[in-house]
Amino acid sequence: xxxxxxxxALAASSMLLTGCGDKFQxxxxxxxxxxxxxxxxxxxxxGAKDITVLEKELRGAIPFMLNxxxxxxxxxxPHKYQYQRANNVDNYAGYWxxxxxxxxxxxxxxxxxxPDNDYLGGPIDNQLFQQSKNxxxxxxxxxxxxxxxxxxxxxxxLGHELTDFYGTIPFTDWRNxxxxxxxxxxxxxxxxxxxxxxxxxxxxxxxxxxxxASELEKIExxxxxxxxxxxxxxxxxxxxxxxxxxxxxxxxxPATAQAKAEEAIADxxxxxxxxxxxxxxxxxxGHKSCIYQISVNxxxxxxxxxxxxxxxxxxxxLINVWFDGFQYPITEKxxxxxxxxxxxGIRPGIAxxxxxxxxxxxxxxxIVHENFSTMSQPFIKLSExxxxxxxxxxRGWAMGGTAxxxxxxxxxxxxxxxxxxxxxxxxxxxxxxxxxxxxxCDVVDYVDPLDFKHNTKGRVSIGVKWNEADDDETKLExxxxxxxxxxxxxxxxxxxxxxRTGYPRLFxxxxxxxxxxxxxxxQIRRMTFKxxxxxxxxxxxxxxxxxxxxAQHGGIKVFWDNSDTWTRGDKSDDNPSNTIEARNNF
Length: 586
Prior knowledge:
- The chain has helices at about 5-15, 50-60, 80-85, 90, 125-140, 145-165, 170-175, 190-210, 215, 230-250, 255-265, 290-295, 305-315, 320, 380-395, 405-415, 430-435, 470-485, 490-500, 535-545; strands spanning about 95-100, 170, 185, 280, 300-305, 325, 365-370, 375-380.
- By secondary structure, the protein is mainly alpha-helical.
- A two-stranded antiparallel ribbon has the order 1-5.
- Helix 3 (about 80-85) crosses helix 12, helix 15 runs antiparallel to helix 16 and helix 15 packs antiparallel against helix 18 (about 470-485).
């Protein structure tokens, strides 16, 4: 079969993943790809015999690590990003709030906590697995084992994220490109174990093969490169991912978590470190980022109240670097009071109107700044790795430095990478030391200048300055809260860390009458699969893997989630609490 036919088949299969304005596919919405129409002889298998075809397949697979691809001209695909991130994970992290109640596709969603709202299945996509299958199973035989290594890394990246989102995926069946349902959904802990093994294998292969820059060009588009011609960058990707995954399981398997984290640091090449750039796709000249398109041009998302509140609590200048707002006056709907000029975020869970524009409703609230119009799209940021090492050191792990050293380094990097205190930056000569040395910070209450009924008391009371006299829980909260800021806009990692630790102290969901299985303090714990009349066997497999007694709603916890240790007080805004009474290792 000719390569262009293979590409066409993949393009057709990707249509199952809908974007704004597209028709939603009802049959198997979580089973992306043409699972049943390709004949059993695997017409798309030319890459299993031809290394040139395999390399082109792998080159096409890499952009799907974030579950959405790029247009042929190099621009982002904002429709896919909106369906797969902006209308779900970005909100659950507290970074953004979707500011409309209906779109031109999918069902109505008075709030994002309205099941089934046709958006909960957004991030799940197995097209990466389809396009990398031959690299997994044929590259070594064709004399290019390094391509198997890279395929293992990208499958591990997507696989661990989707496991974190849903709690279970058919990881092995996807890898084997099984096309005839039902697929077998696997337990999250088993998927993690397999990915750890895959990452170790990938690291060993790359160290042995050491592919040249010219070889890497065969599988990486120069405008969307991970390695920039250096195979060691792929090793750092694998080790940094190991470190992230190790921390995710710290509360359920602390021994394995420590062992995997220390392996990643002790490796001769190791994780991202000083002088490394983020593992990210650079923006292509002339093309606006997905977030900019969705926020500014479509008016579909606005700054989330939790991030607004945290930035204002610390008087962090990044709020003015990342966001813009108040293009039009905001008047409180009941009192007629006009708001002070500022950048405002929307509280999660409030009922949205069907239309939002810049002139009215929540339109004048925070949009993304022009600074982010051509942002790079990160997979793993250096700042995340630095803060992970701070948390590991706090837990007594061998991270190559102290918790305070990594914590303060992460904060400095947060400002440096946003050019806040560089000459000619947004804020010339900003005093980062003064920020780091804030012993205490005033608690900032949240005010919704459009409707005061959404007001709530501030939750974050910690300062920034590292104090060895603090207990470990306070130190952890400081690390996670500054990491939350520094990792923006990486919502997947932020949501996972919030579910794992309870930090930062996000505002509770305001209105949640239509999702009785989700506690508005704990918030949504996993994304759900859309159940139809066609997928009873699939759902039975997924529910068994989740181990939740035949359910798969959004209140079910993924395998690493032990949030039963959270102390939630009486759930009132007068007594907010996300503290954790007991945690392994603390």
